[in-house]
Write a structure and sequence with these properties.
alpha/beta, Rossmann fold, Arc Repressor Mutant, subunit A, 7-stranded parallel sheet, 6-stranded parallel sheet, 35 helices
């Protein structure tokens, strides 16, 4: 390694720590940063939340000149600029939201060399006036964000992105970095070809988002109720996105959730620009807002604390699903990707594909993409492995953090039931939809069935062993496997495909997964979950919001949730200790350090210490209630209840066995971790044990030692 390389790496690491407040690089960040600083091109494939922005922001601060960042996200540019300015970085943006005076001021800053980074939209970059302006300034690098937009086969194609190949022609000596979180092999090659990146180094950090739990299930007819239970049970008061296929369903769902007491706002192209911008701004700047949206919302949403993304309809491709679910958990904390889908989703998307004006080759690719999405939904094994495989990535063993891993689905021999369904469709003339065929199978002699004489068919009433929901689920799976097809003229009738013949003749068996309801899932035991409702946590959030409101910026621009959670856990007592927390650089330490330390000091002294409160918790435990039941009864957090019980254990009022149900092997494992750790705080023990035991349980075991 040369002295120059050492100097480059040391310089980059110093900027990482002093400006951004992070102790070290992740994944390939250090190599990417070095590649750009040395003047080379790069294509970066990195999952959302993996730290793509740092890959060009740090070189922008080290190389001379201004870095030009091309992004299609006009609505979010200002928030990105605000976040950089909070760290003392000279950043600005040029887009259509600025008035003439503001545009001239930014252009003057650019020509005077007063900007480290300038964010612009690709449309503006293509303007001759902008190109003339850039030719007069010293450019440090070009960063092309959301680079998958260049692909005509992608889900977010932007025609103006194709023209970005001119950057290398006009500025051949300026390094370029293209970044994306969503690109299969075909899209990667298209990015390289269209942007002229044949000589660029490709950095593939994989596509895995291990902090996201994937859960997919069938819509059993009460999707809104299932959604409401999911939000209230697991993400009450937290930010989330709910995607729907139609504008009407967006409006209905947002109103229904609001009527149930949640803070839900709609977002779709049918709303006025003012309403859309207002709702998006509230989502970005306020805590606990739920956006209900069509896919018109969200590309590149730079909000780190989205705790869940829910789909009430089937996405049209795995790329779209991955991009949309990737908006959850950008801060690396546990988050959920939760989806319900049904037969009508499959039919609607197939009809939309076939009725489009696209050419046959495009339709064929779109059909393959939808089939892959359906395959992921019907998957019986680890969903994460299948998802990563689609992008050419791999996971050597099941993830343990998807519904199929946590509750493996049951399968059944569906051959006979499939034969009945296929035979019914055939004997009814292949002119009717699923609901009608289910009525025939269940022997419902309504007027329409009698009118067509289908109550006389041999298949009439032969399917009473399954209920309506089960039959619809079976038809959905038959359509998903292309054993049945949906008509092209929009009437929804189903016809047999050639691949159905072997099943119908008994030459081939068919195994399907049993229908399942989406579960609430295993309750997470995480540091975030335990700090997120403590008095100190709420006080830190309130102070952050006050600062953000005063400056007119989103709260996460001040500090991310992960930074506040670490403050609440570590409770630093001075600026030196505060500086060790991830995400606090020198500028933010100077700007906010003293005020956040004051909040910590005020709230540590006022944490609940009441002997009466402890005694009431102990009394309820002795009456047979669990810690969770006590928390609900007393309107406390579970963490507070465990603190009361740990205090009672320390003072000899309770035995450890009265509080936690652990066998001897589990107790030995926890005690061994405490005995062999120099740091007796709970967080290192929790991490050493792989998150297997809740913080409250660890606190009680420590109290008994």
């Amino acid at each position: 390694m040369t002295d120059a390389t050492l100097s480059t790496q040391d310089n980059a690491r110093q900027v990482l720590q002093s400006v951004f407040g992070y102790s070290d690089f992740r994944n390939h960040q250090a190599e990417i940063v070095e590649q750009l600083i040395d003047g080379g091109d790069a294509l970066v494939l990195m999952p959302t939340g993996g730290g793509k922005s740092l890959c060009f922001q740090i070189p922008a601060l080290i190389r001379s000149g201004t870095a030009i960042v091309i992004s299609p996200l006009i609505a979010l540019m200002q928030d990105q600029v605000d976040a950089l300015q909070q760290n003392g970085i000279r950043a600005a943006c040029l887009n259509s939201a600025l008035d003439g005076m503001a545009v001239r001021e930014v252009e003057q800053q650019l020509t005077r060399g007063e900007l480290d980074l300038l964010y612009i939209a690709p449309e503006r970059l293509m303007m001759p006036r902008m190109q003339r302006l850039l030719s007069q300034v010293h450019i440090a690098l070009f960063a092309i964000d959301e680079a998958h937009c260049v692909s005509q086969w992608g889900h977010d194609f932007r025609p103006e992105y194709i023209q970005l190949s001119i950057l290398h022609q006009y500025f051949p000596d300026v390094p370029r970095i293209a970044l994306t979180a969503t690109a299969d092999e075909r899209t990667q090659q298209e990015i390289i070809q269209r942007l002229g990146l044949e000589q660029a180094r490709v950095f593939n950090n994989g596509f895995d988002r291990p902090n996201i739990r994937y859960r997919i299930a069938e819509n059993n007819g009460n999707a809104r109720e299932q959604l409401l239970r999911f939000i209230r049970n697991e993400h009450d008061g937290e930010a989330g996105i709910v995607y729907c296929l139609s504008r009407k369903r967006v409006d209905d769902t947002a109103k229904w959730l609001s009527d149930k007491g949640l803070r839900a706002l709609p977002y779709h192209a049918g709303l006025s620009n003012e309403t859309r911008q207002q709702n998006q701004s509230r989502f970005l700047r306020e805590d606990g807002i739920i956006i209900v949206a069509t896919i018109a919302f969200g590309m590149g949403i730079d909000k780190p604390d989205v705790r869940f993304v829910a789909h009430l309809n089937l996405p049209k491709s795995i790329e779209a699903y991955y991009q949309e679910t990737g908006r959850a958990g950008r801060d690396g904390l546990p988050s959920d990707a939760w989806m319900l889908y049904g037969l009508q989703d499959v039919i609607t998307l197939r009809q939309m594909q076939e009725s489009s004006d696209a050419d046959d080759s495009y339709k064929r690719i779109e059909r393959h993409k939808l089939d892959a999405m359906l395959g992921l939904c019907e998957q019986e094994s680890c969903r994460r492995q299948a998802l990563l495989h689609y992008f050419g990535d791999r996971l050597d063993k099941p993830c343990g953090n998807c519904d199929n891993c946590l509750s493996p689905p049951e399968t059944w021999d569906a051959t006979v039931a499939a034969q009945k369904a296929l035979s019914c469709a055939y004997r009814a003339g292949q002119r009717f939809g699923v609901n009608y065929l289910v009525d025939v199978l269940q022997g419902k002699a309504n007027s329409r069935i009698q009118q067509f004489g289908h109550d006389k068919l041999t298949v009439f009433g032969i399917g009473k062993e399954l209920n309506t929901s089960q039959w619809r689920g079976l038809f959905r799976q038959l359509i998903a496997r292309r054993l049945l097809s949906v008509d092209l003229d929009g009437h929804g009738s189903v016809q047999l495909s050639q691949s159905a013949r072997p099943i119908l003749r008994g030459e081939q068996t068919l195994t399907l997964r049993k229908l399942a309801k989406v579960s609430a899932g295993k309750t997470r035991s995480s540091n975030f979950a335990n700090t997120a409702h403590s008095q100190l946590w709420e006080a830190l959030r309130a102070h952050r919001k006050q600062l953000a409101d005063e400056q007119g910026v989103p709260a996460y621009v001040i500090f991310h949730d992960a930074t506040l959670a670490e403050m609440a856990e570590r409770q630093p007592q001075n600026r030196e200790q505060l500086a060790l927390i991830s995400g606090i650089g020198e500028r933010k330490l100077d700007a906010y350090g003293d005020s956040f330390l004051e909040v910590i000091h005020e709230n540590i002294g006022s944490q609940p210490q009441s002997g009466d409160s402890n005694a009431e918790t102990v009394l309820l435990l002795c009456q047979g209630m669990t810690p969770l039941e006590i928390a609900h009864r007393r309107e406390l957090t579970v963490a507070t209840v465990y603190r009361h019980l740990a205090k009672a254990i320390r003072e000899g009022e309770l035995e450890l066995a009265d509080v936690v149900a652990l066998d001897e092997a589990e107790l030995q494992e926890i005690r061994f971790a405490f005995e062999h750790s120099e740091d007796k705080r709970l967080k290192p023990i929790y991490e050493a044990l792989g998150g297997e035991y809740d913080y409250g349980i660890l606190e009680c075991v420590r109290a008994a030692s």
